[in-house]
Protein 1
Amino acid sequence: MTRKLYYEDPYKMEFDSKVVKIDHDKSGPFVVLKETAFYPTGGGQPHDQGTLNDIEVIDAEEVEEEVRHYTKEELPESTEEVHGIIDRERRIDHMQQHCGQHIISAVFDDLFNLPTTSFHLGKNTVTIDLDTEHLSEEILQKAEERVNQIIRTNYPVETKWMSVEEAGEYPLRKPLAVDGDVRLVIIPDIDYNGCGGTHPESTGEVMTVKFLGWTKSKKQVRLEFVCGYRVLDKLGQKHQILTELKQLIPRPEEQFVGEVDHLIKASKEKDKKMAELEGQILQYEAREIISDAEGNKVIQRVFQDRPIKTLQSLGKAIIEEASDAYLILVSEQEDQLQFVLASGAEIDRNMNEVAKQTMPLIEGKGGGKPNFVQGGGKKLMDGADFADRVKERL
């Protein structure tokens, strides 16, 4: 069994150890050591990262009572001893987030009788699932205030190994799921929990907690939050965004929401007006195309880089006016052809059948209603040639 230095001293960021085994499995090459300060994934907390003899440790997992250090490169088989260095920033971050979670879960349980059912320590934020279907703003505010009060009071955070029987003497939040010795994380008068994660020596090291919001998750609530240095990171990110917004919106910060709402509404109005104008332009273009056809019962046009949606709108406008004509519209793209094939209301012809006959010419695909088909394929011929081949089948 590997000696777990991270339990003896979670602040130990460097260590020396003898190599027990160098091997590999489906996850890659790994090293087993006599003792280690690398925390392996477990209990909702991610693994530590760092180096062994300057070789990057990308994962740490506990398998069959041994801690496997998965390395980016395989250590030489002759390696007998290693010098390990833990990624300090990552370790401290995980200690802050995990301890913060204990405090948050304790507060929701004690103040509102809302137990935590699961915990996930993510790369950017942390989440817990609470056994309720709704959280009011009042509850969130009271909980956040109480959590930060506990942090500022700087309670000690103790860890103790003991038997399950001894642990039963404490006011545990949930039953223990082990039979042998258990490790209790204790924040006196606040929380008593069986936990295998790494924690700071006092709640003050968590620094602060900020709730980011909640969402429904099945029949529960998923609360998202950050602790410690992550709060500063979030504050820095939001400050940067606000600073950039100030360059675009010459208003005080408290007026940003109203100003952005006004801009969005104005933009939607402009989009609506532009759509109306584009529709009118297409109507004029449709009438011009019909006029140029001079009564021809097959109207065909080839365009360059015309979007398929515009082609469809133009086609519908033409067919509404020319009820006794066929329509062939083709748009030449850099490496493809797109088309619209249609027939007026006075013509009884399934244009899907025409499309099926001609699409193999461009290895194309398409479909639609009997009187209006759209599609596209490879540019294996000019648009005009394709239009002529379609016309032959009409």
Protein 2
Amino acid sequence: MYIEVKHLNKTFGNFKASNDVSFDIKKGNLVALLGPSGSGKTTILRMLAGLENPDSGDIFIDGKRVNDIAPGERGIGFVFQNYALFRHMTVSQNIAFGLKIKKLKKQDIISRTNELIDLVGLKGMENRYPHQLSGGQRQRVAFARAIAPNPSVLLLDEPFAAIDAKVRKELRTWLKEMIHKLGVTSIFVTHDQEEAIDVSDEIIVTNKGQIEQKGTPVEIYKKPLTPFVAHFIGESSVVSNASIFRGFAEIEEDKKSIIRPEFIEIGRIDEFINPSATDIGFVKSISFHGSNWEIVVDINGCLLTGYRSLEKPALKEGEEVSVLIHRLYLFDNTETKIIENKLKIDPMPVYI
């Protein structure tokens, strides 16, 4: 493994920001540290960079323990959330800053700076100042400045937070392509699960200073290992007594479960070929989401959220509907497991 973190602990006063944190990262991977505010993800990033010192534990990069190595000597590039560009410097001067600190030859600095300006798509903007650039362009400058000295590891602290939604999606794609093209091992902090799933090779989910789960985006989404991950990833409804639903009678009444929108289908009362596996409810609310309808349905006082294609007959608020729950996540304080509907015969409904 290229990066190895072993039993990191960090406390600020009475707050445990990192609690026995351990993980490893393969060379060249783009990894997301994902979690809510206060979960410890930024503290981990800052300890990797050398901007915070762990109370205990070890950090290894390419087999070398770096705990006692100064930030500037760790071979790490850092992209800050607010870009941290020098306002009095042009695009070229900002990108060249780290190269000048390393006292490279003037011609080498010019050559490397021009190479990066082309790479990040800012040709023709070399002499502009940060205030003359858009948010996406400033982020590209910050990225180019961070990779200019050819770091072995790139760290990014919420790199898309200050950018509007449309540009953010474009920049996410661009960043993923750039990092894979360069082959630099990279870690970025985010609280946005869509961002983490879309960009990363692996996701490390943090919560209350600990690692809840590490895996590919598909693994994290489809096989959550803890109740927190099951609830945090995806849009979920938490149900206190799933035994009320058809096909799940064997579930103990005190067991909580999570039902995601893609786990259920909502249709007209006569829409499903296997009514014994469906519950009856009524439409509480309907929201248009562009590619589909988001429907909140009430089943005996339990509210579930599902999606319905625009190609299917429209439903109305207050309408009685059939709800087929394909599966759910059942969890307690230690584990999460998937439970399938026992009464379901055909995996796909027949619409009439």
Protein 3
Amino acid sequence: MIIQPKTRGFICTTAHPEGCAKQVQRQIDYVNAQPAIEGPRNVLVIGASTGYGLASRIVSSFAAGANTIGVYFDKAAEGARTASAGWYNSAAFEEAAAAAGRKSYSIVGDAFSDEIKAKTIDLIRTELGKIDLVVYSVASPRRTHPKTGETFSSVIKPLGGTYTNKTVNFHSGEVSQATIEPATEDELRQTIAVMGGEDWQMWIDALQQAGALADGATTVAYSYIGPEITHAVYRDGTIGAAKNDLEATAHRLHQQLGASGGRAYVSVNKALVTQSSSAIPVVPLYISALYKVMKEQGIHEGCIEQMYRLFSERLYGKDETPVDSKGLIRIDDWEMRPEIQAEVAKLWTDLTTGNVYELSDLEGYRREFFQLFGFETDGIDYEADINPELNIVNLR
């Protein structure tokens, strides 16, 4: 079939296997061009098929030479429907890892479930013995609690009052005002249940109890803080409350793992184009302005550059991992430089539909969004007839 992008709002419902493979290879090539990292040996990445999770797996395997297990919830192609981008990404990663002589395994299923936790632990015991790094990078809008059976749905809303600010339709370039009503108490509760730290805690508890976690193991989860422009809808909203819970979990896990020489962190990462960030009003316009400024300053990074810097300079580059006053790793440090934020704020004031392509990198945002799904990637013939069915080697 000839695979073309089909969008519905901020979602692309198709993906291109060759385009996804080329994007994965680009990340691998970047890592292979960097100095090797003296880091983890056996790595579990929960949420491993896209974004920061995928980049973490690539850095672990190709920079540190680690064995990896990736857990993710993606779908294979079926009939006229392509596989998800994460499926194609993981197929490409597994093939490249096998060619490089790295051990790697994929488990597809609901990471929130006890079943997938048990299946992962069995695989660790059989193939790797113990894990010394657990990356928690799950991004899901819903979660079914494995003990109570309740299904929670997250929302992206402010707390305490209605919020209005600029946003952009990154397909059309229209800049408009977005107004978001505040979350209810139950919406806040459910968002924390989905995006907070409870499931991360459950994973570490299960791994420890099964003897599948090495002494001195590290675990890291990912978060975002961002500037004042986005705080009402992000850091001070429902998502921020969930991230506060995630950070509190990190402190508990740091103490829990510390008894055997281990550690737990939340890494605050840079704003990047992801399917999740595209769904948050205000954020795509902010990222477009940020990209313009950081690219002009020569300090723009994507997922793979961020994760290589996290592993090489923070988690494994020094005797002690540098953290801020709240115990957070700040790999968003370049984004949050005062001079960068001052320039973004200046652009923000002036942004309109008429000048959005001039004052921001909206075209770069749009192109990067489609590249998440394997489209608009140089060197790919998008008019070619291609088989959307692709198997993943080492799928368990």
